[in-house]
Design a protein that fits this description.
Structural class of chain A: mainly alpha
CATH architecture of the largest domain in chain B: 5 Propeller
Shape of chain B: globular
Largest sheet of chain A: none
CATH topology of the largest domain in chain B: Tachylectin-2, Chain A
CATH architecture of chain A: Up-down Bundle
Largest interface: A-B, 33 and 32 residues
Oligomer: heterodimer
Structural class of chain B: mainly beta
Distance between the termini of chain B: 32 Å
Number of helices of chain B: 7
Strand order of the largest sheet of chain B: 1-26-37-28-33-34-35
CATH superfamily of the largest domain in chain B: Glycosyl hydrolase domain, family 43
Radius of gyration of chain B: 28 Å
Largest sheet of chain B: 7 strands, mixed
Shape of chain A: flat
CATH superfamily of chain A: Invertase/pectin methylesterase inhibitor family protein
Helix content of chain A: over 70%
CATH class of chain A: Mainly Alpha
CATH topology of chain A: Butyryl-CoA Dehydrogenase, subunit A, domain 3
Number of domains of chain B: 2
Radius of gyration of chain A: 19 Å
CATH class of the largest domain in chain B: Mainly Beta
Strand content of chain B: 35-45%
Number of helices of chain A: 8
Strand content of chain A: under 5%
Distance between the termini of chain A: 64 Å
């Protein structure tokens, strides 16, 4: 009887546990807005994200930035690119740390430095320019190249032992979302 | 200056055979060695050693099978000695195709776009600096995109261009400026315009020049304002008697056109050259935009280039084509061979309407009739309307623009060829983009359905050291090296004749062929591919085939395709690997002909006198400098091809800063 009750409790708790793991990570810098319950999410955000390959990532990224509530499609794209810039910066910091702590990875890490330099110095500025000024094709080039650069970084670690996989994947996923939003502007 | 000579090539297949070590000899040495040592040992050990050597040898043998190409080439050369034609000056030999699949149906290596990069290639300085072109226009460094305001004035051709003075990526756009006497030898000048006014502080973008009767020049260009709105602005030379047109004045009353109601603030750019309205006093100018996903061209009327009135309706619109950038609109003569002033109209003319589609980054055009009284242009063939029909260029090409050259009475076409390598590489090499060699544009009187583009004749002044190859017979599956020495700066004119009987006897071949999905020159068909291999290294580990491919349907009609195949152009994974091309009209009695301008990392290919053109960017790692070679090839299975080629080396155009400014 007790074990039955225990099982029921566990079964009751489990779904809520799994749901909480599915929640997007809180971005502490912009966290206040998440706690305000919005009855009606902005239609544009909803429709835009539904047309990207990763609704969840698009939605959570946009919602965690207060600028999204008044933004047009160009603005939404800029928010995703901004989030990508944050992640890319984190990746660069990680690369620099790893160069010191894991010298066995120095060759792929150097390649990744080149890739992320291109992302931060070329792809992202180009995407921001293109979106701000309304010439989306250059923003598309920038995001398409980001995917290339990230894949190159990840694949330069042989035998799939990349210590950057998580960060690379996050950057990659954001670039795909950004690119699909940009395509809506063409 | 050009020396014409036919070469008897000293190519000696025997040498190639002896260079390739034969596998059998080394095997036998190993086997006899091990059995010799074991004579004193028990039989068991002997057998064990023999069996393990056999196993080892089988392993080695299977490994070597994977690298079979050079060895098989040697054997095939042997076999083909009898087949080579003694009268030709070139000895073709058999080419083992890159894939061993049967001609149809086997999954060939599919072409890959840039997004399939596996790794970042370790580019060396030597590889990157080789990529710079020798006779195509490009700035010394940094980013360039659209050609702007081309014009001819007081003996000089002028080119302006979108330029980033700070970096190898798009941004901080200014108007670069260069001049030339002959459209080939360019001299850099200081910037014509920089983003320094509220009406263009966020970008001095694309525009066009109009030359008024009397020689006055007006420039209309798009500015991105301090409020990030796209507007049209007027500028004019500070000093019209300056042949170099160094200084420009921006009309203080700018902007002269702002986005009208219903048009997005970010969907309003790239005004064209103006043309005279029917009344002979007012001017008309057009620019592209979109309404939802319908691409449109709007027309404005002006008498002084300062005040404008938007005409009702649109010049033309095509649904589902998206934003129309860099619209171009001009007449071509259907009877004569000259170009026409932009204001020409009436009998004996057709009008070309062209748009650069933002959506897919391609330049499209269509021929049609312009009715200025109703502000309407109608395509000759609505199935091949702007954005859904013919492309100006089937490769990496965008933002093209024409102008009327009043000196030689030609219509000249400029086009931007961007990079297809990674941004990381662009940052490393410090530059991005080139312009095409300027092309003349005329109506194709033979087909009546397209224009012809051809490199301006001034390009021929760069030619030297001609080499001719006459009637080279290429059996199915053969390649012929063309030993012309250095092969990175070339002007090639080649023609191909397919064996008549075999062509007629072939009932059906590759009906659904399409360059872009074909897998390139490695995909063998009965009647193709055959053509040239440019920027190839001696072992063909890197090669760029430019080729014809004939497909035939059961009703007997044949279709000719013209393709440029980048799929094996480079070992580097992080570069574009597409196969570009399309069908090309070939009329009865015509040989298949192609002209190729090879200039380091740019190849411009023209089929049938310019009916179809393909611009390619290639970034080889090995087939560079002295290692680059040129070949003819025939990879068809069912037909032999007779090829002729005339090849010139091309000098550098010595593009540099205007001296003593």
């Amino acid at each position: 009887m007790r074990s039955f009750a225990f099982s029921c409790i566990v079964l009751a708790i489990l779904p809520s546990l799994s749901t909480s793991y599915a929640l997007p990570p809180l971005n502490l810098k912009k966290s206040n807005h998440i706690f305000m319950v919005r009855e009606k999410v902005n239609d544009l955000i909803e429709n835009t994200c539904r047309n990207t390959p990763d609704y969840q990532l698009c939605f959570s990224t946009l919602l965690s930035d207060p600028r999204s509530f008044d933004a047009d499609t160009y603005g939404l794209g800029l928010i995703i690119v901004d989030a990508l810039k944050d992640k890319a910066t984190s990746a660069v910091n990680a690369i620099n740390r790893l160069k010191g702590s894991n010298p066995e990875f120095i060759r792929p890490l150097i390649k990744c430095s080149i890739s992320y330099n291109a992302i931060l110095k070329a792809d992202i500025p180009e995407a921001i320019e293109g979106l701000r000024k309304g010439v989306p094709k250059f923003a598309e080039y920038g995001m398409a190249d980001t995917a290339v650069e990230v894949r190159g970084c990840e694949n330069s670690f042989k035998q799939s032992n990349s210590p950057l996989t998580d960060l690379n994947k996050q950057v990659y996923d954001l670039s795909i979302v950004a690119k699909s939003i940009i395509r809506m502007l063409l | 200056m050009a020396a014409n000579r036919s070469l008897t090539l000293p190519y000696d297949p025997e040498l190639a055979v002896s260079d390739a070590p034969l596998l059998e000899q080394s095997d036998q040495a190993e086997v006899s060695g091990s059995s010799g040592q074991s004579r004193q040992r028990p039989v068991k050990v002997l057998a064990g050693i023999f069996l393990s050597s056999l196993f080892l040898l089988t392993l080695i043998w299977t490994l070597f099978q994977g690298q079979e190409e050079p060895r098989d080439q040697a054997q095939m050369i042997n076999a083909n000695l009898n087949k080579s034609s003694p009268s030709s000056s070139v000895s073709p030999y058999s080419l083992i195709p890159a894939s061993r699949g049967v001609p149809q149906g086997v999954s060939e290596k599919t072409f890959r776009g840039v997004s399939d990069a596996n790794d970042i290639y370790p580019w060396t300085n030597a590889m990157l600096s080789w990529q710079r072109t020798s006779y195509h226009f490009q700035p010394e460094k940094h980013w360039m995109n659209d050609p702007n305001g081309p014009l001819f004035h007081m003996g000089w051709y002028h080119l302006f261009y979108q330029y980033n003075p700070d970096s190898a990526i798009w941004g901080n756009i200014t108007w670069g400026h260069a001049v030339s006497r002959d459209l080939i030898h360019w001299l850099y000048l200081p910037f014509a315009m920089v983003p320094d006014r509220p009406f263009d502080v966020n970008g001095v973008w694309t525009g066009s020049a109009t030359i008024l009767p009397g020689g006055k020049i007006v420039m209309l260009y798009t500015g991105d304002t301090d409020d990030l709105v796209q507007v049209q602005n007027l500028a004019y030379p500070a000093n019209l008697s300056d042949p170099l047109l160094l200084d420009w004045i921006k009309y203080p009353g700018n902007p002269v056109m702002i986005p009208p109601p219903g048009i997005g603030k970010k969907d309003f750019r790239d005004p064209t050259t103006a043309w005279l309205a029917p009344d002979g006093t007012k001017w008309l100018v057009t620019l592209g935009s979109k309404i939802n996903k319908t691409g449109i061209a709007m027309v404005y009327e002006t008498s002084d280039f300062k005040g404008y009135r938007l005409l009702d309706g649109v010049l033309h619109a095509v649904p589902h084509t998206g934003m129309w950038e860099c619209v171009d609109f001009y007449p071509v003569s259907t009877a004569g061979d000259n170009g026409l002033d932009t204001s020409a109209n009436g009998p004996g003319t057709k009008h070309v309407l062209k748009a650069s589609l933002d959506d897919n980054k391609h330049d499209y055009y269509a021929l049609g009739t312009y009715d200025p009284n109703n502000n309407k242009w109608t395509p000759d063939d609505p199935e091949l309307d702007v954005g859904i029909g013919l492309r100006l260029d089937y490769g990496k090409y965008y933002a093209s623009k024409t102008f009327y050259d009043q000196k030689k009475k030609r219509r000249i076409l400029w086009g931007w060829i961007g990079e297809t390598d990674s941004e990381a590489a662009d940052l490393m090499k410090g530059w991005a983009s080139v312009q095409t060699i300027p092309r003349t544009v005329v109506f194709d009187k033979k087909t009546g359905t397209n224009i012809l583009q051809w490199p301006v004749e001034e390009a021929e002044s760069l030619r030297f050291n001609a080499t001719e190859f006459d009637t080279v017979k290429l059996e199915p599956g053969s390649i012929a090296p063309l030993n012309i020495g250095s092969a990175t700066q070339l002007d090639i004119i080649a023609s191909f004749e397919v064996d008549r009987e075999a062509l007629e006897a072939t009932v059906e071949a590759d009906v659904g062929y399409n360059c872009t999905t074909s897998g390139g020159a490695a995909s063998r068909g009965k009647l193709g591919p055959f053509g040239l291999l440019v920027l190839a290294d001696g072992s063909l580990s890197e090669l760029t085939p430019v080729y014809f491919y004939i497909s035939k349907s059961t009703d007997g009609s044949a279709e000719t395709h013209f393709c440029s195949d980048e799929s094996r152009s480079s070992k580097a994974p992080d570069v574009g690997k597409l196969v570009y091309g399309s069908t090309v009209p070939v009329l009865d009695g015509e040989k298949l002909s192609a002209r190729l301008l090879v200039d380091h990392s740019v190849v411009e290919s023209f089929a049938q006198g310019g009916r179809r053109v393909i611009s390619s960017r290639v970034y080889p790692t090995k087939a560079i400098y002295g290692a680059a070679r040129l070949f003819l090839f025939n990879n068809a299975t069912g037909v032999s091809v007779t090829a002729s080629a005339k090849i010139w080396h091309m000098q550098s155009a010595d593009i540099r800063t205007f001296p003593d400014l």
